[in-house]
Every structure is written in structure tokens, then in C-alpha cells.
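User: I've been trying to design a sequence by hand for this structure and keep getting stuck. Would you show me what you'd pick, starting by listing the structure so we're on the same page?

Assistant: Good idea, let's start from the same input. This is the structure you sent:
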């Protein structure tokens, strides 16, 4: 190599996994956009996803417009996602989430027979595991403990499962999933907190094979859906409630439970 030389490196672009690229609009006006995010669609660019993400699709669908995703839901979670249109709306909604005046309600299909209702108050922390994303219960005196509270109630029971409405009072990573696991009733299809980290890592490397699908309760994604979001409108300040119905894949799974 010599000073002034230009080096070009050419390599084939990596293959990006296929994901659902269509989303329905649940509500929109000049200040906010609420979409129905399909399960499997990631939020932001990662090492594996760059074109097939919520943020990339928003740029495609609304070119030249500022779109700020106001919160996050897991890639496998479906349902209501709130997007701010413009700097003022983004600033207002960021403060609203920080002040915990936005109400989030999820539907979760869990294993077993949880109590009719309850309040899970278990601080969480990031665990030192191979995946680097797994959360767990924090012990007494843990300096990195994060307060976490989830309210829940059963809305429908099945012979070996329950459909629950869950309302997180805090917004920790994987909070609802971890809290139901700690309660002894993991969410159906949860690869990380239901089947375990080893099988989760295998699914990341191999995809969801028929063998692994049997370990994941016959669901290719976890049974968690962002059902309802109530937030103060950035302009009117009046509460606005947006709902997303349970998606067809989860409805179909419920029908198999008897």
C-alpha cells in the first residue's frame, strides 16, 4: 500500500431474512401515527436486519417526513406502535412515556392457571449470559436492579392455558415475559424465557425448524400482543385510545386449545 492509493473491497451483500413488510395504519393525523406492527418485524437496524425494519419501512412509506418511533416492542410481539410526526410531537410523547402517563395493555397467552388477577412487583436486571439480552430477577442489594411492576388479569381460561391482559407500570426490557416466567406461567411460544436460552440460541442460528417448533409450543413466535395504547394527544392533550385486535395467528392458536 502507498499513500494516495484507493482500496476497493467488494463482497456480496449478506442475505437479509424475510419478514412481514406490510403494516396496517390504525390511526393517523398530522401529529401522530399508530400502526399495527406484525410479529416478526424488527424495530431498528441490526447486524441481521437493515431494510426489513419498522424505521426503514416508515422511510419508504413516508419519504421526506420525520417519523420518530415513540416506544419499542419486541420483534416477535405484534400490535399497536406509536410514532410521532415532527419534533414537537416526539418531544411531548418522550416526556409522556418518561412520566408514565401512557397506558399500555397487552394480551398474553400463558401456560397453566395463574390467579384471576394480580400485581407482579419484581425488580429486574440484565443477566450475564451468552445471549447478552436475557433479563432476570434482581437480588436484594443488586446495584443494577431496575424496579418493575406489571398488573394482570385473566380474561379467558383454557384447560392448560390462560389468556391474560397485562398492563406494565414500568417499561423494562422483556418485562411482561420475565414477570410471567417468574410467576411460574411463561408465555406460550417464548423461546428465551419459556424454552430456555440454549434453544433460543439454536433458533437464532438455524431458524425455527420443525424440531424446535415442538419446543416452542407449536408457535413460531411468542404469544404476546400489544392490544391497547392510551396516550395524551400531543396537540389537544386529550386522551386517545388505539386498539389492535388479536391477530389471526394467535386467534387460530387459541382455537386449538379447547
Amino acid at each position: 500500500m502507498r499513500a494516495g492509493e484507493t482500496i476497493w473491497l467488494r463482497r456480496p451483500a449478506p442475505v437479509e431474512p424475510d419478514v412481514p413488510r406490510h403494516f396496517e395504519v390504525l390511526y393517523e393525523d398530522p401529529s401522530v401515527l399508530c400502526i399495527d406492527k406484525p410479529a416478526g418485524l424488527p424495530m431498528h437496524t441490526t447486524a441481521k436486519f437493515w431494510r426489513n425494519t419498522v424505521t426503514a419501512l416508515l422511510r419508504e412509506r413516508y419519504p421526506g417526513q420525520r417519523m420518530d418511533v415513540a416506544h419499542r416492542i419486541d420483534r416477535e410481539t405484534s400490535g399497536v406502535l406509536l410514532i410521532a410526526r415532527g419534533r414537537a410531537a416526539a418531544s411531548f410523547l418522550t416526556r409522556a412515556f418518561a412520566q408514565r402517563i401512557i397506558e399500555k395493555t397487552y394480551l398474553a397467552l400463558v401456560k397453566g392457571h395463574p390467579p384471576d388477577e394480580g400485581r407482579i412487583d419484581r425488580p429486574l436486571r440484565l443477566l450475564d449470559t451468552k445471549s447478552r439480552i436475557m433479563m432476570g430477577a434482581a437480588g436484594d442489594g443488586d446495584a443494577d436492579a431496575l424496579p418493575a411492576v406489571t398488573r394482570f388479569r385473566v380474561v379467558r381460561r383454557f384447560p392448560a392455558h390462560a389468556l391474560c391482559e397485562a398492563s406494565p407500570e414500568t417499561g423494562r426490557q422483556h418485562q411482561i415475559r420475565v414477570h410471567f416466567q417468574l410467576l411460574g406461567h411463561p408465555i406460550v411460544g417464548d423461546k428465551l424465557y419459556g424454552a430456555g436460552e440454549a434453544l433460543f440460541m439454536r433458533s437464532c442460528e438455524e431458524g425455527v425448524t420443525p424440531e424446535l417448533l415442538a419446543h416452542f409450543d407449536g408457535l413460531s413466535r411468542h404469544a404476546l400482543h400489544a392490544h391497547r395504547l392510551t396516550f395524551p394527544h400531543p396537540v389537544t392533550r386529550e386522551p386517545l385510545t388505539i386498539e389492535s385486535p388479536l391477530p389471526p395467528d394467535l386467534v387460530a392458536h387459541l382455537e386449538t386449545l379447547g
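That's my pick for every position. To get oriented when you compare it with your attempt: The domain at 24-255 is CATH 3.30.2350.10 (Pseudouridine synthase). DSSP finds seven helices and twelve strands in the chain.
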